[in-house]
Amino acid sequence: MPHHTLFYRFGVALFIGLLVGLQREFSYDEEDKPDQKTFAGVRTFTLMSLAGCTAAYVAELLGSAWGFVGIVAILGGLVGISYFISASRGETGVTTEVAAILIMLVGALAFWDEMALAVALGVVVTALLSLKVELHRFAERISREDVLATLKFAIISAIVLPVLPNQSFWPAPFDVLNPYKIWLMVVLISGISFLGYVLVKVVGSQRGVGLTGLLGGLVSSTAVTLSFSQRSQKNAQLAKPFALAITIAWTVMFARVLVVVGALSVPLLRVVWLPITAAGVAGLAYGVYLYFAPHADDDEEVSVTNPFELGPAVTFGLLYGVILLVSRAAQMYFGDTGVYVSSILSGLADVDAITLSMTELSGQGALTLETAARAITFAAMSNTVVKGSIVLSSGSPSLRRVFLPGFLLMLITGVSVAILL
Asked: Which of 173, 190, 357, 377 is least enclosed, having the fewest CB within 10 Å?
């Protein structure tokens, strides 16, 4: 092996050890524990990483993996002895010890020329060690139901999805019913909602109604609309902040539609982005107006529940399949008009399912891109009408007055641009 290559690999191991070691050195200063010293600091972590790299080099020179195993075992034994000494003093945490062993193995990866993995692990270890307080706070916000919901999401994405057949078994219009693709859409939409819920947990919803609308829109813009409409009955003086949160949640819904379409069909995105973006920009502009308008502040915590449960996920899958079938049949027997009518009706219940259906049909060539784009826009506007009806029926009079101009602006803008496609 050329010397410059050898020095490069040891240099990477040296850098990773320094990075993690510096974090460990400063961690105790930040926690103000001068009387407690971790067994490994910047020098020890650097040496551990270099030792791992050296162990891999020795194993190559000897032509036997036992050289590597022996060195790692000796160093692992020293780490174990250090832990037992610390435990005898009542310090039972093993974070630093585990990090030291991992960095030693990362040093070996650097010698084996797995640079991308070695550097990534080094950065991840440093981040995990640095985010101790934030991670503990996040864990405190997690409930047992959240853990179970995460497990269920892992089951549908990692276990159920791979075993489903990726083909259709029936003639048109039933040829659009592909079990794998239908369940893949369930995973996609559940994943987006789940990500939004995690962000709410990390940031917290008690950050003002504007931020709550932004994060809540990732989970469910309908839930945000209903929540603030009901609260406006008891807090009529907060009409503008509540209208702002609702407007932002709706704007996020439009952005969410673009993300879903872009993830599945870039050609359709090039067509549908204009009417959806126009409606979103209209909502954003009105949101900016509401933000700078004088209004009272509100820091009350808004309850946002975990959006993922197996029952609703299966229901969404069935809804998506039914809408896909109805849209395909409507197009076959009634042409584009049938597609538009079915989209408007479907949007009354859910905009995600019809968005996915139109994207799938356009990808199969059953619909033109323009027809699919209009259908998605009409569904989004239909869904907007439903949420607007929630505000107008359950919101306070002051909320209705503040909210109505933005509602009409988004609705008229989106429909007008869609018709012009």
From this structure: 173
